[in-house]
Amino acid sequence: MSKPVFTHTQDQLKQIAQDVLRFSREKGASDAAVEISEGGGLSISVRKGKVETIEQNRDKGIGVTVYIGQKRGNASTSDFSSASLQATVDAAYNIARFTAEDDCAGLPEADLLEKHPQDLKLCYPWLISAEEAIDLAARTEAAAFAVDKRITNSEGAGVYAQQSHFVAANSRGFMGGYPFSRHTISVAPIAGKGARMQRDDWYSSQRNAKKLASPETIGRYAAERALARLNARKLDTRKCPVLFEAPLAAGLLGTFVQAVSGGALYRKSTFLLDSLGTQVFPSHIEITEDPHVIGAVGSSPFDDEGVKTQRRDVVKNGIVQGYFLSTYSARKLGMKTTGNAGGSHNLSMTSALTQRSDNFKAMLKKMGTGLLVTELMGEGVNYVTGDYSRGASGYWVENGVIQYPVEEITIAGNMRDMFQQIVAIGADTLTRGTKQTGSILIESMMVAGN
């Protein structure tokens, strides 16, 4: 994308939002909400030195929600003309007319809305041409091939640059929006030949392209990961400690978030039902949410409904302090929204026992003898019972030293037990999306193999 310039300014989007709210009032709606977004980006992929795809996108859209009392209707359009806005409001209104009343439906209370959002500096447009992006991807892949002649193939390397902006507003006085960006460089090399091939991948993703890891660093590390997996063995079935590498540990944190989110709670489809105020983790574990980190991927001054976000302790001393609730799910539970319509914001999972010296090698020593997991396959989580069973691969570790790679195994347990058996969290902190944690060591899990 040669120029990361939006077709509309923030002021123009705000004017469109005001028009939609006015049309809704004139139609007879008791309340209304609107979100207008516009963005553009470039995505390219290179495989074995040749360009596979070049995609440029320009997207825009408007979503309108209209309330007639506690009846709700939604409609959307990509046409910003006045006639189209009016027609979209009409469509949402007509849907609301024939929708059943829901006593939990409705906009957030006015005093919960963010009227003066702070600038969290979330947009760093990447002025990159297709030619420059192709060169970056080619360098990333070439760096992987250069590591060792056993890197024989590749699933490709990619570069993705995206910048967008939006404005959201509702009839209770909220109007806010901001530009944001997200850029990524990735590669997935393949090591070995024939039936003994192994693949791995690595990527770097930031709002600010200047903070991305270099193509050479990404390529080399991805290749080293693939090479380390060659000559993998199977394991006999056993029970042992399991160390989740940091990228996968973020997934365990994600499992907790889903289990204490409003939808699962009010539907009673979670193993952590009524867990507020209860000891779910050991006393050394804490989880914090900080939506206001400057420039971070998970930052936002308000949630998808315009509700103020705020820093909070989600888990303190292992005890659950709060859920993740939208306005609707909060009302279903007889509670107040936590400002999490749309998801979590910059979650950090830490342990009071972690020392600065607890790097990855130190975590292997803490485990002693057990399984290091670096890849998981399948879903394998039953959120109603907490049962956990997933295909895995990684490395067998003895006396704190990696002995050999392993594959075609299954790790199993129950999430309640797994959370309670977190022995340590490493200082090898990694951010994946909105979640940040180091590697996580679990005292004991069942490993099914031969």
Summarize the structure.
The protein is an alpha+beta fold and 450 residues long. The chain contains nine helices and 19 strands.
What does this molecule look like?
The structure is a single chain. This protein is of the alpha+beta class and 450 residues long. Helix content is 24%, strand content 36%. Helix 1 crosses helix 2 (82-97) and helix 3 (130-147) runs parallel beside helix 4 (215-228). The N and C termini lie far apart (51 Å). The mean pLDDT is 95.
User: Helices and strands: which structural class?
Assistant: alpha+beta
| Share of helix, binned | 10-25%
The end-to-end distance, rounded to whole angstroms, is 51 Å
Tell me the number of strands: 19
Sheet of most strands: 7 strands, antiparallel
Any idea what the shape is? globular
Give the amount of beta strand, in percent.
35-45%
Q: Characteristics of this structure?
A:
single chain, 450 residues, 6-stranded mixed beta sheet, alpha+beta, 19 strands
Secondary structure elements and pairings:
Blueprint: H1 10-27, E1 31-47, E2 50-68, E3 71-77, H2 82-97, H3 130-147, E4 151-170, E5 175-191, E6 198-199, E7 202-206, H4 215-228, E8 238-244, H5 246-259, H6 262-266, E9 285-289, E10 312-316, E11 319-320, H7 327-333, E12 347-351, H8 360-367, E13 370-377, E14 387-398, E15 401-414, H9 415-420, E16 422-425, E17 430-432, E18 435-437, E19 440-448
Parallel strand pairs: 8-13, 12-18
Antiparallel strand pairs: 1-2, 1-4, 2-3, 4-5, 5-6, 5-7, 8-19, 9-10, 9-12, 10-11, 13-14, 14-15, 15-19, 16-19, 17-18
Helix pairs in contact: 1-2, 3-4
